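User: Quick sanity check before I run a bigger batch. Here is a single chain. Can you write out its predicted 3D structure?
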Amino acid sequence: MRGLLARLVVSTIALYLTYLLAKALGVGIELTGAVPAIIAVAMLAIVNALIRPLIVLLTIPLNCLTLGLFTVIINALLFWLVGSGWLKGFRVDGFLPALFGSLVMGVISGMANHLIGAKE
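Assistant: Done. Predicted structure follows.
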């Protein structure tokens, strides 16, 4: 349970840092506070746990053809899905901002989770 909570906090911070970088670069990602960030991270976790495996399974031929790079597109589409208006306070304005957001958030949270995992 402690590890799950730590990853939730890390992912929330990663989403906030992604928002700050997107805001500085003028990319269309909006986040209005801590509560929408926490809810958005929880929604991303649920979508990645329930929908992502099905989409990856259905796109195995395309993933093989692109040597796995189509997974980046899938991640961006799921990031865009969560930020498409379901949640007040978190908005992603299109595919390119979603691609940017999913890549940046993935890198930040991946590095942070690696550091947290090394200490446990």
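Residues 38 and 114 are 20 Å apart (CA to CA).

User: Great, the batch can go ahead then.
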